[in-house]
Write a structure and sequence with these properties.
The protein is α/β, with parallel strands linked by helices. It contains 4 helices and 3 strands, in the order E-H-E-H-H-E-H.
Length: about 110
């Protein structure tokens, strides 16, 4: 009989620093997320920019605002709400590269 506890089932009760970034859609979505974070004792920051795009956050050459924002705020979790301004793009392969760039910049941030 194995009495070990599966650590993946344990609840992480540590206070978190949550960063919510995105376009104008994030402005409205932040309200319930902020309430949830406050209720659970977490720090919650939102950076929502009207008409923001994926490229405006990561840059075409990794020069966007995401990298600097992560370095300054040092969040433990990042929630990203982007893409509504790219609904009609036909450059899907190019955007795949930008999304991979976001993943790379996030590193070990959850």
């Amino acid at each position: 009989k194995n009495n070990e506890i599966d650590s993946s089932l344990m609840i992480d009760e540590r206070k978190q620093s949550i960063l919510f970034i995105g376009d104008s859609m994030a402005e409205g979505l932040q309200i319930p997320l902020k309430e949830y974070a406050k209720f659970n004792g977490h720090q919650f920051n939102t950076i929502a920019k009207t008409s923001a795009s994926i490229v405006s956050w990561v840059g075409k050459d990794n020069s966007g605002r995401l990298k600097n924002t992560l370095q300054q705020m040092k969040p433990t979790y990042v929630i990203i709400c982007l893409g509504s301004n790219e609904l009609f793009t036909k450059e899907l392969e190019t955007y795949k590269k930008y999304l991979q760039n976001i993943r790379n910049q996030l590193g070990k941030t959850k």
